[in-house]
Design goal:
The protein has about 80 residues and is mainly α. It folds into two domains: about 1-30, no CATH class; about 35-83, no CATH class. It has three helices and no strands. The longest helix is centred in the C-terminal third of the chain and has 32 residues, at about 50-80.
């Protein structure tokens, strides 16, 4: 969060680069998902989800936030293309 690139992010960047090289005909998108787990926990707290169930669904809710971020990014790019 301080602007430095973590070791995990470096490994991911190498992986994404390899994907883009191998599948250059496809558009490869990346999403910053660092805070999705925090948002998922906020949502579960707001909905008063039983704490025993939280660990079972936190990844699912996080995935929803990641997909929503991608779809919003895609929607905004379409709007910009139409201008």
């Amino acid at each position: 969060m301080n602007g430095t690139i973590s070791e995990r992010a470096k490994i991911t960047e190498v992986f994404v680069h390899k994907l883009k090289c191998k599948y250059n005909h496809l558009k490869i998108e990346t999403i910053d998902e660092r805070l999705t787990t925090v948002e998922a926990h906020k949502t579960m707290n707001f909905l008063e989800v039983n704490k025993n169930k939280k660990k079972d669904i936190v990844d699912t809710i996080s995935a929803v936030y990641i997909l929503e971020t991608y779809l919003n990014k895609y929607k905004n790019s379409l709007k910009n293309d139409l201008k």
